[in-house]
Amino acid sequence: xxxxxxxxxxxxxxxxxxxxxxxxxxxxxxxxxxxxxxxxxxxxxxxxxxxxxxxxxxxxxxxxxxxxxxxxxxxxxxxxxxxxxxxxxxxxxxxxxxxxxxxxxxxxxxxxxxxxxxxxxxxxxxxxxxxxxxxxxxxxxxxxxxxxxxxxxxxxxxxxxxxxxxxxxxxxxxxxxxxxxxxxxxxxxxxxxxxxxxxxxxxxxxxxxxxxxxxxxxxxxxxxxxxxxxxxxxxxxxxxxxxxxxxxxxxxxxxxxxxxxxxxxxxxxxxxxxxxxxxxxxxxxxxxxxxxxxxxxxxxxxxxxxxxxxxxxxxxxxxxxxxxxxxxxxxxxxxxxxxxxxxxxxxxxxxxxxxxxxxx
Length: 360
Fold this sequence. Notes:
Blueprint: H1 28-45, H2 48-73, H3 84-185, E1 194-196, E2 201-204, E3 216-219, E4 223-224, E5 230-231, E6 240-249, E7 255-265, H4 270-274, E8 288-298, E9 303-306, E10 315-319, E11 324-332, E12 338-344, E13 349-353, E14 357-359
Helix pairs in contact: 1-2, 1-3, 2-3
């Protein structure tokens, strides 16, 4: 007897399934359904010939079972008649089972055909999908190869440009270095220093003159190099005329020279009374001349330069605060006031009142 729920066999007479606990129905129809279900499962796993054999064997087994059940269920035994009905019924049931089995076989064959058709369609679709995937992979590989080739070409081009640029830079650097080296080796432009304030001087014997007073030397590259001026020796104790030479050398060994005349006179020499030469004969010359000019600065506003030592002389110009005035001699007016004889920076000679002149 087979269980209607799980389809597993049980002992005849059992009321409940020993496998799943379901109530067992003691009738041939339930067993047939169970056996049919079992046959369906076998039909899906076996060939058609094996299914037919299994159906025939099961039919014979069912006939025997029906006969056994009829023997126990009939209340009036009739040995001559009773066996016929069960056999007839079993034969009919066997025919039905065979018909149903044939239908099941056809159904299984149709399902197999459908399954085979579905399998073929699935295989074809799989092949198509696989072909698409392979095509995509090939396209990706080709694209990747093209990209790599393009990148390789671009890299080569960039490398070529970089090498060309580097060569150009190196060439320019080489040219710049050569130019720098040539420039460093080439002698720098240099101008000779220039002297300012050098002039001829007269003095009386025994009165030395500072020949560097008011003399400066300016160099375009080095600036003021007056402290490097050198001057030749003059013997102020001996009457005579001397040529004095000034020289100065800058940092690039460029030397400039200039000369002036120094006259040493006796105290009674008429040349001493005339003093420094002047462009105006109306200007009074000092009786006492300095051995050298003295640099002075005006401390008054609008100080007159006059033709003689006194306010009674005519004004021929003026200087103001901080203006330079070079003193060459001196004299006193009638009131005993000291006046200086000299010139401004423009070479204007005359007399200025000493109270507004400060010697430096």
